[in-house]
Amino acid sequence: MTVSEVPRSLRLPVEIDERLSRLAAATGRSKSYYLRELVTAGIDDLEYAYGLVTRAEAIRAGQRETRPLDDLMSELGITHEQLDAMPDQPA
To answer: What is the pTM of this model?
Structure first.
């Protein structure tokens, strides 16, 4: 453990701990290594998801300004046909 790390304790379901143990044994890394990897990778996703929820709640409560999509499309010069032709996922 380095100076910039803080110890934490958590309870895991037996099935998850068994999977973690198998992964650690198969790769020669510690279970702590994989737990750090999971938390580090997952915290961004959790912060993003909870941020979306917070913004959605603020919109529903009338605390954030919104604009109709048609107004934005008109302002940007995008037609419905162009929007429909766009791929679902970024390239």
So the answer is: 0.56
Give tens-digit pLDDT for 38-55.
999 999 999 999 999 999
Contact 31, 20 (CB under 8 A): yes
Flag whether 29 is in a domain: yes
Measured CA to CA, the distance from residue 52 to residue 47 in angstroms comes to: 9
CA angle at 70 for the pair 65 and 73, rounded to the nearest 5°: 100
* Count of the separate structural domains present in the chain: 1
Whether residue 54 lies inside any domain: the answer is yes
Confirm if 82 and 73 have CB atoms less than 8 A apart: no
Domain extent at residue 44: 14-85
Q: Is residue 78 part of a domain?
A: yes
Between CA 89 and CA 91 the distance in angstroms is 6
Distance, in Å, from the CA atom of 83 to the CA atom of 85, rounded to the nearest integer, reads: 5
